[in-house]
Amino acid sequence: MIVLAIDTAGTGCYAALYDSDQDTVLGAAGAEIGRGHAERLMEFVDAALDAAGMDLPAVERIAVTIGPGSFTGIRVGVAAARGLALALGVPAVGVSTLSALAAEHQTGAPLLVAVDAKRDEIYWQRFAADGAAASPPAIAAIAEAREIAAGHDGAIVGSAAALLREGASPGTDGVSIAIVARLGARLDPQAHLPRPLYLRGPDAKPQAGFAIRRA
User: What are phi and psi of 124, to 5 degrees?
Assistant: First the structure.
């Protein structure tokens, strides 16, 4: 199966073509762009297709990161994945950034994935030794997250690891597009629809008290 993987959940914008039968990334493209995912994503999709020597109709599944992460980036990626899946008549699946980080650092022991959510908060999730989710994804204040980390016997990975445990290696928010593709190839499309995983509301709030009177 040929999977087109897309990651726009963080500061990076990446795309890759993956052959699940051969467990091989056929082509990838992308960059750490900070902002402008909507303007650059299709450019990177085209570049990944060119690197793989394929045309878009060869794609049999779309995999996209759904967060937690950048509110705008997630929205861009999910919308693109849904649109491409609809146009191609193929399934699309959502891959959480926390599960992708867990898969990247899996060593056969329990993991606590912790990502810096800014504003003194942490995105976190526990994973069992076999890689299965052991808790739902959640957000917590740093003080609460430190209590959670204190009760965790295994490793802590992710950009917030050093905030939660003294001596822990500082991690990164970025996920491997190859791992996103591999996870996306294994997931059940019916159980993992590409829906944004927002653990915190958007920054923009509608203004109250300024309703326009209808004529």
Answer: -150, 160
Domains of the chain in start order, with CATH, are 2-96+174-186 (3.30.420.40), 98-164 (3.30.420.200)
How far is residue 97's CA from residue 120's CA, in Å, rounded to a whole number? 19
Q: Quickly count: other Cβ atoms within 10 Å of residue 35's Cβ.
A: 12
Contact predicate 177/14, CB 8 Å? yes
Burial of 206 (0-12, 13-18, 19+ CB in 10 A): exposed
Length of the chain: 215
pTM for this model (two decimals) = 0.90
pLDDT digits (tens, 9 = 90+) for 68-102: 999 999 999 999 999 999 999 999 999 999 999 99
